[in-house]
Amino acid sequence: MAFRRGYEAFLRTVRAGFRGAHGARCARPQILGANAAAAAVLTCQYSNQRTISSCEASAAGGSSSIIRFRVDSDRPGLLSEATEVLKKQQINIRDARISTEEASPRATHVYIVEDRGGGGLSDQRLAEVRAALQQLASGSCEAEPWPLFSSEEVSKHQTPESGIWVSYKDGVYDITSFVQNHPGGKDKIMLAAGKAIDPFWRIYQQHTGRGNALELLETMRIGDLSDPPKESSGACSCPYDSDPERHPGLIFHNNKPCNAELPSELMMDSWLTPNPVWFIRHHHPVPVVDPEEFRLCIE
């Protein structure tokens, strides 16, 4: 139990340190290698800390690489030691995690990494990783690029049977296991199945404003998007640009959409609460209504 608490604390440190510079997290280990048949792979096997088989590698593409360090007998501190080895190689660690086999000393240490200049690891860098990690324990090590998916491939995953995928910026995410737990309801999140969620989050900006949604999304990342949407270079198309000005004395809990309340200091200014300081609760932008043209018909 003490080892597990120490390991979890270590992971929080690694993730916090990288997120400050890159804002990215890793996907679940069991799906990291999906559709990566053409990916560059380096496989090295070790016994008694000596290489006993050949290594094969080709150029590593993509924005990052996946390193799987499989050990025959795991031990406390090995994850930290391997992390220090990678840092000495000037490799940026996007995430680190460990999976164990039930009733077995074997374990797999998984690292999502970027080279010091960004991007996946080259042949030479993969070889350097092999040479460094082989000093730590007997087992095997694999490194391969982060899988790339196109928007067309993402669009094919809209059901639980095929997996429910979405994209956000340059990432691809498998949200199948999360759909039932979506705070806004299953029906709402399924509107984005197989699509980019960028336009949805431009409206529901509470997802990006609070930060926890981004963190949760990154835990479901399975690869990179090969054709991410281009950022608009023209005028801002934010749907909240036309929202009315609000009283600066309100206590704002969110700006887009606006959620605010009356502070206690203003409560007794008037027996009738003035409109500008009335409680505000929105999920969407405020509609633009032209009083000269707007008509309400009652039948």
UniProtKB/TrEMBL annotation:
PROSITE patterns: ACT (PS51671), CYTOCHROME_B5_1 (PS00191), CYTOCHROME_B5_2 (PS50255)
Record keywords, A-Z: Heme, Iron, Metal-binding
Domain of life: Eukaryota
InterPro entries: ACT-like_dom_sf, ACT_dom, Cyt_B5-like_heme/steroid-bd, Cyt_B5-like_heme/steroid_sf, Cyt_B5_heme-BS, OxRdtase_Mopterin-bd_sf
GO cellular component labels: mitochondrion
Domain ACT positions: 67-148
Similarity comment: Belongs to the cytochrome b5 family.
PANTHER family referenced in this protein's UniProt entry, alphabetically: SULFITE OXIDASE, MITOCHONDRIAL, SULFITE REDUCTASE
Protein name as catalogued: SUOX protein
Organism classification: Eukaryota, Sar, Alveolata, Dinophyceae, Suessiales
Gene: SUOX
